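Could you show me just one protein sequence together with its fold in token form as a worked example?
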Amino acid sequence: MDWWHWIGFTIGFRYFPWACRWWFSRETTGRLDLTDQECFDRFQQECSKAKAKAHPKDIPALGDTDLIRWIVRNHREAYRQGFDAGFILDGKLISSDFGFRLEDIRQDLPIRLWYGKDDTSAPQSHGEGIAARLGPNARLRIEDETHGSITWNWRVRALEDLVEVM
């Protein structure tokens, strides 16, 4: 995990939610004062500039207008009722003690874990550790992807995977 995500999840959301709110409300996708089109236009420009430093797996996504539009819509909906109602609360919850051990999850429940080899937000080693603790019903898939590319490139297969175990 890169240091930026580590700080955010281990310290930021838990102890400084106001700082997380401030940070994300100033990102283009968190700017609720912009119209949807203004937000899309700005974010598309940011994605275009990001290509120069992006991982090769992420470059196609950074130019995908449909994906950019989806990301903008997704973020705007997540923030529409304010940052604290959903986003900040989610961050606090995922960075806090869940109140149970992974080993205590019923062994008969099918669990699917998807990780990318080049993911610096949720590294492969996390998935390996979680899968080991969950036991034999946890199926870990590790693909040659990043945090963003696994989400977009494997979205259909991940949904099919869920349907298969329902």
About this structure: The longest helix spans residues 36-50. Residues 3-94 form one domain.
